[in-house]
Amino acid sequence: MSLPIFLLWLVSIPFLAHSAPSQPRGTLVSCGSSTKQSIPDTSLSYIPDDGFINVGNKTTLESNDLLPILSTLRYFPQKSARKYCYTFQVIRGGKYLVRTIYFYGGFDGGKQPPVFDQIIGGTKWSVVNTTEDYANGMSSYYEIIIGAHAKTLSVCVARSNQTAANSSPFISAIEVLSLEDSMYNSTDFRTEALVAVARSAFGNEDSISFPDDPYYRLWQPFTDKNEVVSTQTSVSSSDFWNKPPEKAFSKAIAAGVGKKLEIQWPSGSLQSTRYYVSLYFQDNRAASANSWRVFSVAVNGKTFYNNLNVSTGGVTIYSAEWPLSGPTKITLTPDAKSSAGPLINAGEVYQILPFGTRTLAKDVAVMEELARNLDNPPLDWVGDPCLPQENSWTGVSCSIKDTVARIISLDLTNAGISGTLPLTIDNLSTLHHLWLGGNKLSGSIPEMNSLLKLETLYVL
Ligand SMILES: *[C@@H]1O[C@H](CO)[C@@H](O)[C@H](O)[C@H]1NC(C)=O
Ligand SMILES: *[C@@H]1O[C@H](CO)[C@@H](O)[C@H](O)[C@H]1NC(C)=O
Ligand SMILES: *[C@@H]1O[C@H](CO)[C@@H](O)[C@H](O)[C@H]1NC(C)=O
Ligand SMILES: *[C@@H]1O[C@H](CO)[C@@H](O)[C@H](O)[C@H]1NC(C)=O
Ligand SMILES: *[C@@H]1O[C@H](CO)[C@@H](O)[C@H](O)[C@H]1NC(C)=O
Ligand SMILES: *[C@@H]1O[C@H](CO)[C@@H](O)[C@H](O)[C@H]1NC(C)=O
């Protein structure tokens, strides 16, 4: 998804009411920045990224009027590293919206943005290809909703076989936003994550954002040839599990009495897989005791919901898992007796991403302690040690069974490392090979009584 790069980015931000929070719950990071940055006309402030990552180089783009958080970035020329990871403190079991923002700006003197991967936890999230947005003078952003499986969450970028040899992955900003338990709770976040495809406020001309949405979701404007109507009454966001902002109900697109309403949404062609879909409606008229607005909802010709009776209080309908493929068409067909035509206020579509395969927590704890004990661990010794497999830590090999990866060998031969080996190494119970020769390790060699699988050991 894309956003303008200049200062008029969040044009719909109103002056803050006294009761509104000044910052969403979460962490807003401006990558490559050395000072705190804020978005003009808002209370949003972004902190520098130094405390979250220990690899990469900072740079500043020379351009007037660029949104401050897009004017700096961090890029990663260090080719030996298999991934470049940020680490965030989170609450285990909490639910988070993570947004990554990219604006190339020709930082490397080139004309085309590099194409690379982004990774969250041990899961490949997506390819980052900002080529088209950049050509259109826009920044790009990606969003995912995940459940935290541990006390830290890693967000990484990595080279892929699509990354040009002379180019470097980069990132402009990362936002890790805390969501409520009830939000999107039909999804099992232990095994799945939701990758945002579209979040739209129909009939709106501006995007809706913080503080109208206290969770800092971005609701993009969507209008087409259909009529736009305004609402007469307001809804209460708290009546909905997903807490859509009240402002998303202020406008709708609508069809007249007895007419069908058809929208091509989300725009573009979708990859054939499973999606989470939720749609939001509110009768925009003044409340009336004897005039209903009833219609049926179909997605690509298949019934999604029959005889939806839309009240002035608002309703939502959703599917936790709906197959979509190619272009998408939503059709709202009025009931013959309905005294008003169909309408729709807002909608969200997320791709369901299998999420949760990761290295056994005990192995991770040992590896993190080993990394802390070394004076100069490899630059990619952050994030999940084993996963994704193409992006495991340098020198680490693993076996994967079901959704759990275990460390089976560790090879840092001639890696130029110094430091000590922690006692906890005895806890890597599936370790077969340990090669640490040709380094400047000091201290004593820990006992390895529990390493029953150990076949090879070179420590000197
Ligand atoms: C990146 O930073 C490192 C030191 O932090 C420096 O040695 C290296 O030259 C920089 N790379 C580029 C491409 O500027
Ligand atoms: C990136 O996107 C552009 C424009 O959509 C496309 O032409 C190009 O093939 C993509 N690059 C890669 C490596 O996928
Ligand atoms: C690129 O890498 C992916 C997996 O990382 C692999 O599936 C694909 O075949 C590779 N493509 C090429 C052209 O090597
Ligand atoms: C989702 O949250 C709502 C509100 O707290 C609750 O009533 C509902 O049972 C929850 N659903 C699931 C599947 O947990
Ligand atoms: C729609 O809901 C109202 C109450 O909210 C009810 O009185 C009415 O009978 C319903 N209409 C239909 C067609 O279900
Ligand atoms: C190995 O892990 C257990 C917990 O699973 C812990 O109690 C023990 O202290 C660890 N051993 C070492 C040497 O750290």
TrEMBL record:
Protein name: Malectin-like domain-containing protein
Keyword Transport appears in the UniProt entry: no
InterPro entries membership: Leu-rich_rpt, LRR_dom_sf, Malectin-like_Carb-bd_dom
Ranges of residues in domain Malectin-like: 29-352
Annotated source species: Gossypium mustelinum (Cotton)
Superkingdom of the source species: Eukaryota
PANTHER family: LEUCINE-RICH REPEAT (LRR) FAMILY PROTEIN, OS07G0107800 PROTEIN-RELATED
Keywords assigned: Membrane, Signal, Transmembrane, Transmembrane helix
Compartmental location: Membrane
Gene3D superfamilies to which the protein is assigned, alphabetical: Galactose-binding lectin, Ribonuclease Inhibitor
Membrane topology, record value: Single-pass membrane protein
Position of the signal peptide: 1-19
Keyword Signal: yes
